[in-house]
Amino acid sequence: MNPMLTTGPDLSVKTLTLAEQAYRELKRDIVSGVLPPGLPLRLEFLKQKYQLSFSPLREALNRLQSERLVDSIALKGFRVAPLSIKEMQDSISTRILIDGEALRRSIEHATDDWESHIVAALHALDLVTQRTTEGESLDEHYDLVEQRHLALHRALIDACDSRWLLDFSMTLYIQTERYRRPMLVNLPKSSAPRDVSKEHHEIVAAALRRDAKRAVELLTEHYNKTARRIEETLT
Prior knowledge:
Oligomer: single chain
Strand order of the largest sheet: 1-3-2
Number of helices: 9
Shape: globular
Strand content: under 5%
Mean pLDDT: 87
Largest sheet: 3 strands, antiparallel
Number of strands: 3
Distance between the termini: 65 Å
C-alpha cells in the first residue's frame, strides 16, 4: 500500500486524540483549581506542563472558551475564567431549571431499571463518604466522592428522554463544580452544619415515591444550599 495514502488520516486521528487529551487535562485542572481563576494560559507554559504541541492546545483552549471555562483577551491570549458570585448564581439557578425539568420527566418515565440505578448510585456514594481516607490522598478521596456524587445526580435524571437536557445539565455541573471544590476547602468554621447525605436520601425517596413535585423542591433546595455556602467563601 502506498504510505502516502495513509499519512493524512493517521495524522488526523492523532491530532484529534491529542486535542481531546489536551481538552480533558486542561478542563480537569481548571475545575479542580490546579489552574487557578485568572491564570494566564500561555501556550509555552501549557506546552511544558502537558508535554503537548501548540495545535492541540489551541484547539482545547477554543473548546474551553465555548464552555466559559476560559476567557480570550485581545492581544493577550487566554486565561482561566475568573470566579464571580453573579456567574455562580446564574449557573446554579439555570441548573435548577434544567435538572428540575429533567427530574420531573424522569419520574414520569420511571422504570424498574431507573429505580435500581438510583438506589445503586446512592449506596455507592454512601459507601465512599462513610469510609476513612486511609491509603489515599485527600484529592484522590475527593475525586472518588465527586465521581459518585455526579453519578447519583445523573442517575436521577437519566430517564428524562432528552439528550439536550442531559447535555445542558453536564455543562452546568462543570460550571458549578469550579465553585464547589474550593468551597469545601475554604468554608468558614462558623458555617452552620449541613447533612448532605440526608438531602440526597430525601431526594431519592421522593423520586422513588414518584412524587415529582416534592423531588424537584428538594433538589432545588439542595442546589440553593450549595449556592449559599459558595457565597460564604467568596465574600
